[in-house]
């Protein structure tokens, strides 16, 4: 019998999320132990592959060709370092009922054969296509692998069905077309698969949020005049990697007059007394990501700054109260203020300020909640979804602003917040 997770070894139970709702979702330690059942990685791998197969069966495609590293990890449970993210140097194929193939960067394929025993050894292949065009198309690698992919699809009996591709270089699309492959949107198939998290994914997301809880305590202690925004970013990166983060994607650090309008970055600006400052920690633990804003004031706060914070808190509390299975995303978006009420011309300008988005192996998964899209294109909220809700309120002083974000897990009866650093009232760091 193959050591791989072949289709006949995938049972209906593999599709079950295995939720174990309790009073508080656990944030386990990083290690595996014999006296507690923590993350079950075998179950996680089976669940993700079975969700992908189910989503593929629900589509008009017969195969999936994936270049997005998040999708590759979801299907094959392989990862070769965060440097891979923008290289377009890896790809995988899921064809009919066959086991997934993964083409990897040089010797990484040999490593998978030795250590990824849930994969078929002869499905772990070395291969590379364009690497964002640095290997010119005329070298022929695109054609070589397009031909190989087409043959595998034919061997699996899927040649007459479309192939879902998430994204690829333009030359790769031309090479696939030349082989007679009918390409359809595979990213939608994969996003549908990834919508509902199982118990193991939820535990990993909770652990990632717990790490950020600790970072915010550090920021609360370190936020004082003379410290620069980039100093906070450096200290946060250090602490997160010490905690076990595998990727600190970004840390927004916004203070003082930079708060309004929101620039979504950090600088070397010095923190000053009375500043309102907000931060966003985007990092991952075993691939599972956080998006988690908190706002602080330094030393003291004005009535205008307090009012902005209270409004941002009211809006996020109103949206959290709406989160339960069966509610559509337009109903959540409706409790948020209009773009015009915040001084913007339209909802496109305000996009991302009153916002909700799924969390998982990617920062932005389904559902997306925004007045710009959800009012006309609502989605149903389902048990097992995990997403972040974020609100923003500019202060009447013309430059301060408050930003709050909570991560929520949709339970069978409502939702549970897993971002736990206190944010019910405006935190004043190093109060005068």
TrEMBL record:
Peptidase M24 domain sequence ranges: 204-412
GO molecular function, one term: aminopeptidase activity
InterPro entries linked: Creatin/AminoP/Spt16_N (IPR029149), Creatinase/aminopeptidase-like (IPR036005), Pept_M24 (IPR000994), Peptidase_M24B (IPR050659)
Protein keywords: Aminopeptidase, Hydrolase, Protease
Short name of one Pfam family: Peptidase_M24
Signal peptide residues on this chain, from the entry's feature table: none
UniProt superkingdom: Bacteria
Keyword Protease found: yes
PANTHER family tied to this protein: AMINOPEPTIDASE, XAA-PRO AMINOPEPTIDASE P-RELATED
Protein name: Aminopeptidase P family protein
Organism ancestry: Bacteria, Pseudomonadati, Pseudomonadota, Alphaproteobacteria, Rhodobacterales
């Amino acid at each position: 019998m193959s050591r791989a997770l072949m289709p006949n070894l995938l049972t209906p139970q593999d599709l079950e999320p295995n939720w174990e709702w309790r009073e508080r979702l656990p944030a386990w330690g990083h290690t595996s132990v014999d006296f507690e059942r923590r993350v079950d990685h075998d179950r996680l791998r089976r669940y993700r592959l079975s969700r992908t197969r189910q989503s593929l069966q629900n589509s008009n495609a017969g195969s999936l060709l994936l270049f997005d590293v998040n999708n590759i990890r979801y299907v094959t449970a392989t990862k070769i370092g965060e440097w891979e993210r923008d290289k377009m140097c890896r790809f995988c194929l899921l064809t009919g009922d066959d086991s997934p193939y993964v083409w990897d960067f040089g010797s990484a394929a040999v490593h998978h054969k030795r250590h990824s025993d849930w994969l078929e050894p002869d499905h772990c292949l070395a291969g590379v296509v364009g690497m964002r065009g640095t290997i010119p198309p005329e070298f022929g690698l695109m054609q070589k692998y397009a031909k190989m992919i087409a043959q595998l699809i034919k061997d699996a009996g899927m040649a007459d069905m479309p192939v879902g591709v998430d994204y690829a270089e333009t030359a790769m699309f031309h090479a696939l077309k030349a082989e007679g492959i009918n390409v359809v949107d595979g990213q939608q198939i994969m996003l549908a698969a990834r919508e509902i998290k199982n118990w193991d994914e939820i535990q990993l997301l909770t652990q990632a949020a717990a790490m950020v809880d600790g970072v915010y305590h550090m920021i609360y202690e370190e936020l004082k005049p003379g410290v620069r925004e980039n100093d906070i970013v450096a200290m946060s990166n250090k602490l997160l990697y010490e905690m076990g983060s595998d990727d600190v994607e970004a840390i927004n650090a916004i203070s003082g007059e930079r708060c309004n309008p929101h620039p979504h970055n950090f600088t070397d600006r010095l923190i000053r007394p009375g500043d309102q400052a907000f931060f966003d920690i985007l990092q991952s633990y075993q691939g599972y990501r956080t998006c988690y804003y908190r706002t602080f004031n330094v030393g003291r706060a004005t009535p205008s700054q307090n009012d902005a914070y209270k409004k941002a808190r009211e809006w996020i509390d109103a949206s959290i109260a709406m989160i339960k299975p069966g509610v559509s995303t337009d109903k959540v978006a409706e409790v948020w203020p209009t773009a015009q009420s915040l001084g913007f011309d339209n909802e496109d300008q305000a996009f991302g300020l009153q916002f909700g988005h799924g969390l998982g192996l990617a920062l932005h998964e389904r559902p997306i909640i925004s007045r710009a899209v959800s009012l006309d294109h609502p989605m149903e909220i389902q048990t097992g979804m995990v997403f972040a809700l974020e609100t923003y309120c500019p202060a009447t002083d013309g430059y301060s602003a408050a930003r709050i974000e909570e991560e929520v897990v949709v339970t069978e009866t409502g939702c549970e917040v897993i971002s736990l650093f206190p944010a019910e009232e405006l935190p004043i760091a190093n109060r005068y």
